[in-house]
From TrEMBL, chains A, B, C, D:
Positions contributing to Mg(2+) 2 binding: 269, 272, 308, 310
HAMAP family: Xylose_isom_A (MF_00455)
Family the UniProt entry places it in: Belongs to the xylose isomerase family.
Provenance organism: Tropicimonas isoalkanivorans
Cited PANTHER family: PTHR48408, XYLOSE ISOMERASE
Protein name: Xylose isomerase
Compartments where located: Cytoplasm
Known catalytic reactions: alpha-D-xylose = alpha-D-xylulofuranose
Source lineage: Bacteria, Pseudomonadati, Pseudomonadota, Alphaproteobacteria, Rhodobacterales
Amino acid sequence: MKTDFFSGIEPAQYKGTDSTDPLSFRYYDKDRKVMGRRMEDHLRFSAAYWHSFTWPGSDPFGGETLNRPWMHGDDAMELARQKADVAFDMFELLGVPYFAFHDIDVAPEGGSLREFNANLNAIADIFESKMQSSGVKLLWGTANMFSHRRFMSGAATNPDPDVFAYACGQVKAAMDVTKRLGGENYVCWGGREGYETLLNTNLKQELDQLGRFLSMLVEYKHKIGFDGPILIEPKPKEPTKHQYDYDVATVYGFLSRYGLLDDVKVNIEQNHAILAGHSFDHEVRLAYALGIFGSIDINRGDDLLGWDTDQFAMNVPEIALLMHEILKNGGFQTGGLNFDAKIRRQSIDPQDLLIAHVASMDACARGLLAAEKMLEDKALEGPLADRYAGWSEPEPQAILAGERSLEEVAMKGLETSPQPRSGRQEYLEGVLNRYV
Amino acid sequence: MKTDFFSGIEPAQYKGTDSTDPLSFRYYDKDRKVMGRRMEDHLRFSAAYWHSFTWPGSDPFGGETLNRPWMHGDDAMELARQKADVAFDMFELLGVPYFAFHDIDVAPEGGSLREFNANLNAIADIFESKMQSSGVKLLWGTANMFSHRRFMSGAATNPDPDVFAYACGQVKAAMDVTKRLGGENYVCWGGREGYETLLNTNLKQELDQLGRFLSMLVEYKHKIGFDGPILIEPKPKEPTKHQYDYDVATVYGFLSRYGLLDDVKVNIEQNHAILAGHSFDHEVRLAYALGIFGSIDINRGDDLLGWDTDQFAMNVPEIALLMHEILKNGGFQTGGLNFDAKIRRQSIDPQDLLIAHVASMDACARGLLAAEKMLEDKALEGPLADRYAGWSEPEPQAILAGERSLEEVAMKGLETSPQPRSGRQEYLEGVLNRYV
Amino acid sequence: MKTDFFSGIEPAQYKGTDSTDPLSFRYYDKDRKVMGRRMEDHLRFSAAYWHSFTWPGSDPFGGETLNRPWMHGDDAMELARQKADVAFDMFELLGVPYFAFHDIDVAPEGGSLREFNANLNAIADIFESKMQSSGVKLLWGTANMFSHRRFMSGAATNPDPDVFAYACGQVKAAMDVTKRLGGENYVCWGGREGYETLLNTNLKQELDQLGRFLSMLVEYKHKIGFDGPILIEPKPKEPTKHQYDYDVATVYGFLSRYGLLDDVKVNIEQNHAILAGHSFDHEVRLAYALGIFGSIDINRGDDLLGWDTDQFAMNVPEIALLMHEILKNGGFQTGGLNFDAKIRRQSIDPQDLLIAHVASMDACARGLLAAEKMLEDKALEGPLADRYAGWSEPEPQAILAGERSLEEVAMKGLETSPQPRSGRQEYLEGVLNRYV
Amino acid sequence: MKTDFFSGIEPAQYKGTDSTDPLSFRYYDKDRKVMGRRMEDHLRFSAAYWHSFTWPGSDPFGGETLNRPWMHGDDAMELARQKADVAFDMFELLGVPYFAFHDIDVAPEGGSLREFNANLNAIADIFESKMQSSGVKLLWGTANMFSHRRFMSGAATNPDPDVFAYACGQVKAAMDVTKRLGGENYVCWGGREGYETLLNTNLKQELDQLGRFLSMLVEYKHKIGFDGPILIEPKPKEPTKHQYDYDVATVYGFLSRYGLLDDVKVNIEQNHAILAGHSFDHEVRLAYALGIFGSIDINRGDDLLGWDTDQFAMNVPEIALLMHEILKNGGFQTGGLNFDAKIRRQSIDPQDLLIAHVASMDACARGLLAAEKMLEDKALEGPLADRYAGWSEPEPQAILAGERSLEEVAMKGLETSPQPRSGRQEYLEGVLNRYV
Ligand SMILES: [Co+2]
Ligand SMILES: [Co+2]
Ligand SMILES: [Co+2]
Ligand SMILES: [Co+2]
Ligand SMILES: [Co+2]
Ligand SMILES: [Co+2]
Ligand SMILES: [Co+2]
Ligand SMILES: [Co+2]
């Protein structure tokens, strides 16, 4: 370890289900094969720079609680280097194969965009070296274009074209760095791409701006040969009253409108899903159905709270359904499970950071194993296929293929007297409980 | 009047703002000109058959409260005729120019689809005559494919292709009747086109079924020369856990995916908007921005309740913003303000039905007048234009037109230091209060 | 079995965790000892008459789906007897030791309160005999004073004192029958004790009416020697906009205000808890803290829906925390786990009713076993005791005992410089996951 | 004016309804008599120190936007003095008769509680002088015991008794200063008196700590002769997952449990009301019904957002109902309308601060005038009295007085056949619309 922040702590190991050590894994055994692929290669865990290393524990009603050494000092670049040391210490203690960051998480903004870009590249040099020695890879990079006051009324959707231009400058640099570090995706979360009140908002204009911005980014990605997809992360609200990338369905319509379906996919977060009124499973399944599934920000929200709590995912049944969906569709391609999760502000000990990740990694591994078993048994897929079997017949297939007119089918309808069949929901819920 | 249900009550008249008669209008003066068009022609009010004439006052925890004479008796067709008499009495007492109905609202379902279609056409004969004598027109017709148990797992999205065929038979008849009665639109609300649990749902299959169903309906509409648009009414949930036509943005994506943007628009309901987490104004403005605005189901939900209360719209500020949006876009074309609203189940007197409509019509008229004045003064549009003025310049226009690359704009971004300008939200809220 | 409704189905048996038979128990082994008491005696399961036997599968947008034979016929008393036969068949197939009912669930209302009371007593005769032969006992009885239109504006809180009097007549009969059948509790759910709008509501008057009503019931209970507690079931809304028995804390304040804390406790339902913005565990723990815990309506709501879905509880982690709380406090006294849960309206097969109960009973048994283990290990109680250990010291005890003034403690405060300690939330979440 | 922050702006004047000047009043005419009392004496407006002078415009996803001069500098006491100058400038430009503050809003915390107390008293000296010269009075004072990390796990409810002692020290000083400045109330908002997870929380212990803390404060208030009431401000959640002072009903139960009903009342905030699932009017009416109404934090939340937005109240119909309730109960005693409201973070111009207050004061004045007229006309009170008239009869009065047994009333119930009467909700909504 480079630092003594986690001093005395050993790398987390798989110790089996009898272990009571909170810094050991009970299920996550990275080399264990699941449907022919190593667990580590299935889950593709990524640690997030922002929550673990840039957030001081503050909330709207209170200040810093965590007291991180690298947040206090005068030399911003030196602090950024200390932060990187602790970050890679954590990545190695956890054994996560990936990490992810916003530009401003890792480098000081300085006094100008030029200076920021220089700082960013200086830190990228350090990352390159650390990535090489540790083997930790970059799942994705992104630009934070929502925290600074210049973005208070939006970045791409700002009423001021100068802000749009500034955002172009910033996103270009973040894309360049992501490419240089071998990032497998590039993420856009539109934290201020929305509005506080329609009274001062030209909705159509702002959507067009956003469409143009994304299109330019796609063109640039192709130009520089960045292979990974661009991922939009939907969120319905917070910080703004309404955000344009509301949910998966909204993003799909947006991509369709602006001709971006080939190049842009989604990064789905559980907490954002529930803020939009959807289950996590819904968002994931819909993204697959629409062909835009990209990656996951794994976390959990509080169903009874109306804001983004970004807690560590611990609920095995939900994760099992998530992994079932992902395995069913062939597993992750460029995506992974990125821990967009933060410890509670009362979890002030360094080891709380590790314990939280370990416990959530283990819950994911357990979900993966349950999903594997359900798929092997066709526990859910079997009944599903049965339920829709009627649509495999030639006549229904012809209808779906567009070979029948309303009048033709309506005539047939006059002759039928369809009898409902049980949806068997409670049976299926019981089945799920057998696996989790 | 044909019936004595509303006996002793005179048609509602405009009596000016000093009137305290709850059966008079204080603002709605149908021949008054607003921006060159009669109030009646702007607002295009429609009474809804279902809430006022088919709902007995029941809710999930209680039965009938309203005791309507036409709901009790043995001869279903005779009861349907009595209901029609009362309905047209109400239309005339209110002076609404339009009405709207589901097929099963007006005619008994009988023992088969054939019999239902015959009943529906027999009632349509009566409607034709009543429409002629009263001058009341049909804003839209629709088929109820959600109440009967055969539709418990969906109509177009049912796992059983026989139900799909049955739905084709029913929707064809409803479209035929709507055309015959001169309906100006045809509405689809997918009350069971969704799911209760993803455990038993093939999401992609169901979306494809729904896309095919709508496409067939569009083809049929063209074939028979039905001029009006088909309108999807978005609703996120209730009765199902999740409905496919979640909100305006979702419907847009769906129409885009299945190539239906030319023929299908949306019918937006306030209560459905807030259940989806959106303001009414948002949904309307978005529909205009996306080019799919069709019509309005005017009502109001309770912001603190999680179900569709379908109350009468009374909140003038919200209606003023609605009418501002509609006027700004040239006013209704085929659409109108349909009262998809029901009296509370404790409002058991016949005159409660009339008082509720009159009070809400008056709130709409007041909102219209406020909107006219705001537009005349450019009270909101002026500041809005100022805010986005920068985008009218040649360079920003070139960006929007796709004539600039990311690198070009990024270079410019390096030279700017954008300074935020006030969003002036409280100022604009104060302005709105000056008009309502 | 008395009827052929569940024909061919054998009583559910414990078959161990390898069983895949949905009509067998994998965890519920009724004679197994848990902390010295049989599982059956811990869980005290009760089946609910209403959801399983009186609900036809309707919802606000659709009618009957379930087609129960005892819901169709002319002789209301004969149908009530058929229903009782099927109900006791189910109780025996499931092996539940208790049931619960509303008066109108079991007997036809007839044309007057006198007639209803006679019908109710006639069915009670049948129940007595069936209870004796089957060994099934009555967990609680209650009066439905919310479904009939006479109660549309409340029962005890009605603006019309005649309705109050009618409610007294009905509740007296229900209490009499409950006592006669050996009911262990009497429950009051105030389904219409609330309001639709404050515009027509005298809140203080209605609270006083409700207080008086409960007081009279308590006096009567003592008079007739009914031993069990009266239980109020909190619910915040639905069917009304606002219900007076909003949540546990509100009921506590109400009981305190009207001097009812000695005789009235609460019956807590999971779905009502979340509608009020609380976790189930919160409501249970608060009821114990305030000394008013009575019993449980075990079910689950949908966190993303705003109405009472009354689904079967399947969520083992939540149930484990519930049972942990109950075990920690000595286990149920008069209360139990009453299945206030209904199958989905698409679950139309008779066996769906059984499968749902079996799966949920099993989830409860599994939660009980997890709770037992957590208590044995002090997995949660240990860290909790450590966290508050400081308050066991003499000086803090003196403060709590009221022996110190603000000035005295404030002086001490001037000398301290308290250092926060980690709340360890993620650690504890990981611990819970070890047990479920 | 002492500072040039609002340079060039004149005090807001009443200019009548034709005024379009956003810095003038259209309704608020402070000397106008309403029901025999000056408008200013009715509304008792108070400006809040925190939102307007200590909040930099940050939110959980972004930093400072407002760039206030007094927030940047090295000499904390000098900055506090500058802030006081600007604050009193604003109070005078608005013409508000009151202000309110938390201890840490006005004085730097320094390095110890002793130092903080000294700073607080130094600023109080300045306030005394400014209050004398301006005539602005103190509506209430309070202690911020939620922002500092020492309070992360609660102040009075902290697991560490040392934090409890520290809180005693802080609250005593804040009470002393409030008394010295002639504060008319003392407010307690328990921002951390709640929990993040029940897994680490001893609920009963914490409630007892909170009860003891409040009791000590009440004893101290009497000892020093502070005349005003202590007011608890209910809020259900945020920052914590669950706060003990959830809503008015919960606070009532708490006060009752700990014997505090004589000395403690509530300060009700609209935004907190809706976060708890209640209308503002509900909370106010309930507080009057329970005898614990104290004061109002006037603001508005966003019904579609799940956090405390603290926007300026602009909604005239809601305010009219609020003022109707307050006037009906005799008007404010020690309480008033405190602007616990903040401008949006995009409202960065100094005049936005003034415009927001002026617009909201005007909306309040308009609501007051509407309420006066409704009361004069008995527009709502007349129908309400009619609805409950039956309870004025001798027999119902005897029931309410506890002079009848359940059996006696039940006997009467057997003879009645109550007929429901219309609740007339839509009629009453139309009536309200006549006044607003
Ligand atoms: Co995320
Ligand atoms: Co998040
Ligand atoms: Co509608
Ligand atoms: Co609706
Ligand atoms: Co219940
Ligand atoms: Co329920
Ligand atoms: Co407040
Ligand atoms: Co607030």
